[in-house]
Amino acid sequence: MAELLKGKPVADAILARCANQAEKLKEEHIIPVLAILRVGENEADISYEKGAGKRCAQAGVEVRNVILPADVSQEEFDETLQKLNEDDSVHGILMFRPLPRHLNSEKARNMIAPEKDVDGCTDGSLAGVFTNTRTGFAPCTAQAAVEILDYYGIEIKGKNVTVIGRSLVVGKPLALLLMNRNATVTVCHTRTKDVPAACQNADIVVAATGKMETVGAEYFHEGQTVIDVGISWNEEKGKLCGDVIFDEAEPIVRAITPVPGGVGSVTTSVLVSHVVEAAMRKAGF
Questions:
Q1: CA proximity to 246, closest of 156, 139, 234
Q2: Mean per-residue pLDDT, 191-210
Q3: Which residue segments constitute the domains of the chain, with CATH numbers given?
Q4: Is residue 199 very low, low, confident or very high in pLDDT (cuts 50, 70, 90)?
Q5: Element (H or E) spanning 110, and its range?
Q6: What pLDDT band is residue 265 in, cutting at 50, 70 and 90?
Q7: DSSP string covering 126-187, please?
Q8: Is 120 helix (H, G, I), strand (E, B) or coil?
């Protein structure tokens, strides 16, 4: 039976660390502030917003909800975002995407100041990941996968890692984060000829395909660690499932993240840590 790499203890450890850092900032009369910019009333966004608020409260981070109507004009949206950039009391900005079609999402993504881009969505932040510098922040889900490996003492240095997926949200930045930690990384995608063979050669497999239960037993061997980033609602089974067929992988591998209760539960805590870190950077810590 594989070890379950549960997200909750990882998230709790991150929030405890953030709370200690926030106390140090409080001594300097600084309260870390996250501005959440939401357009419209998308239920998934609202749910994430509530969860982020709870996590922030645990760590001493203040949240300011900025809610715009779904039919907001481009001009008003741009003005709102720019004001958040210019507000010295705001340390981090989380902008829910995708935006309504009438808004320029690409422009909006790169309007966010890199030092406030706690969700890691701007080109500036992604460049920081590429160069391994403190410009902006890594995408939260990608960093969450690394946080799980670190928490459970799973060595990254010198290991062969296969990442299935090349999105800008997870696959590409995660591959860079792992290479920055001296892993040898293979990135697989829809044009990769033999994905199972690439995974069989890996010590660590990260599934970030965005396709539910597509990674089965033929991808794995004994002793591997599996990080399943995917999360989808399985109508047939009536439950949340990952990209990995858990019942096939779990009897084979050494350790695996569950879905739900794995990477997803760590992602919001990483977001909170980025807000606190942004405040600390600004304060010169």
A1: 234
A2: 97
A3: 29-114 (3.40.50.10860), 140-264 (3.40.50.720)
A4: very high
A5: helix 105-111
A6: confident
A7: HHHHHHTSSSS---HHHHHHHHHHHHTT---TT-EEEEE---TTTHHHHHHHHHHTT-EEEE
A8: coil
The type of residue at 235 is E
pTM of this prediction exceeds 0.85: yes
Give residue 158's region: left, alpha or beta (phi > 0; psi -120 to 50).
Answer: left
With beta carbons less than 8 A apart as the criterion, state whether 82 and 91 touch: no
Q: Would you state the structure tokens that stand for residue 128, as one six-digit string?
A: 């920081």
Give bridge partners of residue 239 from the DSSP assignment: 234
- Residue by residue, DSSP assigns 53-102 as HHHHHHTT-EEEEEEE-TT--HHHHHHHHHHHHH-TT--EEEE-SSPPTT
Given its phi and psi angles, is residue 69 left (phi above 0), alpha (psi -120 to 50 degrees) or beta? beta
| Helix 140-151 vs helix 7-27: crossing angle, to nearest 10 | 110
Give the integer Cα–Cα distance in Å for 176 and 181.
9
In whole angstroms, what is the distance from residue 231 CA to residue 173 CA? 19
